[in-house]
Amino acid sequence: MKIRSFFSGRNRRIRKKHTRPVIMLKGEQGKKLRRALIIAGAAAAVILLALLLRPEPVLMNSAEIANVWNNGVLRVGLRNDVPGLAENGTGLEWEIAQALAERIMSNSDDYTGDIPALEAVEVTSMSVGAKLRDGSIDAAICLMPRGANAAYAYSRAYYDDPCYILVKPGNENADMSKLKVGCIQSASSSNLYVPSGATRNLLFSYYSDYKDSGYDTASITGYASYTDLFDALDKGQVDAIAINELMLNKYGEGRAYAKHTADIGTLHYAVATLSANSAIATVADMMLSEMGY
Prior knowledge:
Order of helices and strands: HHHEEEHEHEEEHEHEHEEH
Number of helices: 9
Radius of gyration: 33 Å
Number of domains: 2
Structural class: alpha/beta
Distance between the termini: 100 Å
CATH superfamily of the largest domain: Periplasmic binding protein-like II
Number of strands: 11
CATH topology of the largest domain: D-Maltodextrin-Binding Protein, domain 2
CATH class of the largest domain: Alpha Beta
Shape: globular
Largest sheet: 6 strands, mixed
């Protein structure tokens, strides 16, 4: 008997392949799908970028933040002699220091809030650089001009302090290139930055910009104190003095002066740390941004 193959001849059945629908990315049919894929990819990229651009969790795992946690406090150099900004344990700089300390310490698993997060270390313009360098303080919030020295890392500015040229009344429009000008002398060295010389630095930069107009820094005289500086103007030892607004408000009361029309610039104060401890400055920068600075 002849046995016919099930798969042969007319009785052979054609087996259909069961495949997934073909996804079309080309042409008009694939237009909507292409658009959806692009939108989904863009959304994923935004989410990934947002995660990558959130530095605070990474910063809180840095060695310098861990050192602060181990100490149990954030040690901040603060002044106590700047009316309106840092005086008698109050003022804007003290408020920023307290907020920064709580921001950092609250991320520590061991912090309960039962003890102060801030250890305020009183400094002066002459001592703050040394205390940063020897590790006595973790950060300085004490009239530190932003970007003034490469040894430090800075936050964004929290206060703008305009600088003026003061003259005797009636000399507001005098030719500055012909004036003898006094300022607080610089005490900085190659190893140590002293911020009290910041106004002098602005003045020298101004003279450099106008050197072709006869401005010569040889006509600038440095003084050790603001009292000496104002006395020199009163006695006619100089024709003008350069001073920042905060120190003018502190030392200028009762003095006779007028503001010259020259604009030598503005000091922008920021939270400063050693450049090796930049994580603290970066956290301060993020915090100040959230505070609207």
